[in-house]
Amino acid sequence: MNGEIVFRQEFEIQGGDFSRGGEVSCEVKNLLREIGLPAANVRRAAIASYEAEMNVIMYAEQGRLDLSVTPLEIRIVVEDAGPGIADIELAMNEGYSTATPEMRELGFGAGMGLSNIKKNTDEFQITSEVGKGTRLAMIIRTEGCRP
Amino acid sequence: MTSKARHPLSINEEKCIGCVHCLVSCPTKAIRIKNGKARLIGELCIDCGECIRFCPHGAIESQTTSFSDLDAFQYKVAIPTTVLYGQFDNTVLPNDILFALRRIGFDQVYELSSICELTNAALEEYLRDNPKPRPLIASTCPVVVRLIQRRFPSLCDHIVPIEPPREIAAKILRANLSRVLKIPPAGIGIIHITPCPAKIVSINYPASLEKSYLDGAISIRDIYKPICQVLRRNEEEAILRHLFPETLLSGIGIGTALSGGETRSLKNHRTIAVAGVQDTIRILNQVEIGLLKDLDLLECMVCPDGCVGGPLVVENRFLAKSRILGLVSALGERTVVESSDMNLLFHKDFLSFQHPIKPLEIPPLDADPVHAIRKANQRNDLIQQLPHKDCGACGAPDCRTLADDIVRGQADITDCPFMSKEGK
Q1: How do the residues of chain A divide into helix, strand and coil, expressed in percent and rounded to 5?
Q2: What does the pLDDT look like over B6-65, one tens digit per residue?
Q3: Which domain range does residue B419 map to?
Q4: Residue B352 domain flag
Q5: Closest CA to B314 of B230, B222, B232
């Protein structure tokens, strides 16, 4: 019963569209706030979705963010069709990045994205297949202030 | 006295024709057209005054202190914004303007550039003493403070807790005048001359003080003509003027009302200056998701080019800016504040907020989370149905906001002209 999804919304993320980077996570933030979740949880969800969104924009062709809310947690799943990650353990290291010089020039690609997601979520799973895509599943627990 | 309306903006219904200019211009979607007239939603309004700028009919009025309110005071002091120096042609120097204010009826005029220099130095000291959080956000623009309280509540503790120059100046005057002049404190009126309506709110409802040190604010618009009238100098006045010593202006402080004015003097820190309400919202969004941590200070001013672009100024902001930049280059790096004085005031907390700025969160869709979620789902369904034309004909600024109003029980789907046609 507590795992029941009470709110769900999907968002498209266009790979390569840096000019709109951050729009989806901003929308996620506003939605969660309007639902009445506490500011600290909302901020963590916004940071995690921003990092995931930017990963799609930087590396993938196309992706989607699936936001769902249960009485106990915020679940965010970001899936993309893209190059995938060969060595996930390596990619999780702070400072590790495969960003191109162009991305770094834009201020991205410091290699903090995945570790930042880990820091801001209570559960974080990453699965990837090289040449196909990547799936990030994130959970932020909201117990005690359940909707 | 100024009545304590929560918001200084009001709609003049005689002039309002119910068009959509203000609806679209409002950055927080705080305006609706109901029964053919614009209405302000107080909970959402941040007092930025964008609507004043965009209304083609002059129907949005700003309530500021009137001259007759000044009669209540035995001794009147004016603290004009430095923006005032850019409002007159190049032959009118700051000291002429300060003198003109005395001629209008102020017993004393307090020049603000020195205090701007003082708070700039205090800002530098604060940045040095407090390595976290980053970026810190300058607090001079009251609209930015309000925007953070409402839309970016988690950034409240990024706001630099130093009072803006106008409050510091009034605090210094309050601490001394009554004793020196032997007039009871209530008999002394300290009035800011302001380029924007938001200062009124920060005086009536201060975010970081129990009570403002200022008694009111007169707009540049209202005081412009009286100043012009007395600026026509004759010989007699020229002699009179010499009775008053020239005020020393600060080269560091004189440009603080321009965007970048506060960051200009912070040579040892990484800073950026943002002006304009939409860009301010964009940058605060970035800070809220944890970006820009490598910056020390973020200066935001919601008016274009800073306070020179305030909605209650007279001169166009490009001319005003050019004149003030002229003063900046003429005065150079001239300082008028002793660093020992600054240190003393800073470390005695004379310049600090009385209490931290607290979030003023926008109410969720419903106080009951179960209902809030139901409404969020309903709103998504409604957004699908609406025509996505964002025409404003329903009275809301766009389709999404109409859907929001409907689930909050403040509008009906038949308000949309496209929907009602389909319904028939």
Answers
A1: 35, 30, 35
A2: 788 999 999 999 999 999 999 999 999 999 999 999 889 999 999 999 999 999 999 889
A3: 365-424
A4: no
A5: B222
**Final residue of a domain: which of B347, B375, B409?**
B347
Catalogue all structural domains in chain A, each as residue range(s) with its CATH number: 7-141 (3.30.565.10)
Q: What share of chain B is helix, strand, coil (3-state, %, to 5)?
A: 45, 10, 45
Same domain flag for B283 and B389: no
Q: Give how far Cα A3 sits from Cα of A74, A75, B129, B218, Å.
A: 11, 11, 47, 58
User: What total number of domains does chain B contain?
Assistant: 3
Whether residue A142 lies within 8 A of chain B, CB to CB, comes out as: no
Residue A14, burial from CB neighbour count under 10 angstroms (0-12, 13-18, 19+): middle
> At residue B322, what are phi and psi to the nearest 5 degrees?
-60, -40
Task: Residue B40: give its domain's CATH number.
Answer: 3.30.70.20
Residue whose C-alpha is closest to residue B302's, from B8, B46, B2, B13:
B46
Please check whether residue B156 is in contact with residue B359, taking contact to mean a CB–CB distance below 8 angstroms: yes
Task: Give the Cβ contact number of residue B279 at 10 Å.
Answer: 14
Rg of chain A over Cα atoms, rounded to whole angstroms, equals 15
Q: Tokens representing B121?
A: 């130095």
Contacts of B376 in chain A (CB under 8 A): 7, 31, 34-35
Alpha helix (H) residue ranges in chain A: 23-35, 39-59, 88-91, 101-105, 113-119
- Does the CB of A54 have a partner CB in chain B at under 8 Å? no
The 3-state DSSP class for residue A138 equals: strand
Instruction: Tell me whether the omega of the peptide bond preceding residue B135 falls within 30 degrees of 0, making it cis.
Output: yes
Record: contact B154-A34, CB cut-off 8 A? no
List per-residue pLDDT tens for chain A, 147 residues long: 567 888 999 999 999 898 888 999 999 999 999 998 988 899 999 999 999 999 999 999 999 999 999 989 999 999 999 898 888 888 888 778 888 777 777 777 766 788 889 999 999 999 999 999 999 999 999 875 544
Distance (Å) from the alpha carbon of B384 to chain A's nearest alpha carbon: 13
| Nearest by Cα to A126 from A75, A92, A82, A83 | A92
Q: Give the ipTM of the model, two decimals please.
A: 0.80
- Inter-chain residue contact A35 with B285, CB threshold 8 Å: no
Q: Give contacts of A39 with chain B, Cβ < 8 Å.
A: 153-154, 359, 361
Q: What residues of chain A lie within 8 A of the CB of B359, using their CB?
A: 39
